[in-house]
Amino acid sequence: MAAAARAGIAPESMVLDPGYGFGKRFDENYALLARQAELLALGRPLLAGLSRKSFLGRTLTPLFGGEDAPVEMRETASLAAMVAAILHGASMVRVHDVRPAVEAALIANAVLRADRIA
């Protein structure tokens, strides 16, 4: 953020993207997702791009004979990861399969609203 500000980008124009899958080991992606809300302390909205990531495919290996799940078989895992990201503070998501993602996001947002009321 500091480098972007020095380059003249206004802080209110910045969105944080943890970069799931990029330059991280398998387990680091899950640790980042579990602690993603800590990034909210930086005061910027969070974008989570988890759709079809390879670490999701690797998690599904027990269902695919020890092989990573093929990309086209990662939709449900992508939705589960997206919901986790929303529940951990993401206000924007990048998805491939829009309709199921909107449905899942509506449920995640309902949970967040209910948590604020309780």
Alpha carbon gyration radius = 16 Å
Q: So what's the oligomer here?
A: single chain
Strand order of the largest sheet: 1-2
- Figure out the total of helices: 5
> Mean pLDDT score, rounded?
96
Q: Count the strands? A: 2
Low-confidence stretches: none
The separation of the N and C termini measures 35 Å
Q: Sheet bearing the most strands, described?
A: 2 strands, parallel
Quote the beta fraction: 5-15%
* Share in helix: 40-55%
Tell me the layout of helices and strands:
Blueprint: H1 2-6, H2 26-34, E1 47-49, H3 54-59, H4 75-87, E2 92-94, H5 98-117
Parallel strand pairs: 1-2
Helix pairs in contact: 4-5
Please, could you describe this protein's structure?
- With 118 residues, this protein is mostly helical.
- The protein contains 5 helices and 2 strands, in the order ααβααβα.
- The protein has helices at residues 2-6, 26-34, 54-59, 75-87, 98-117; strands at residues 47-49, 92-94.
- The chain has a two-stranded parallel ribbon with strand order 1-2.
- Helix 4 packs parallel to helix 5.
- The mean pLDDT is 96.
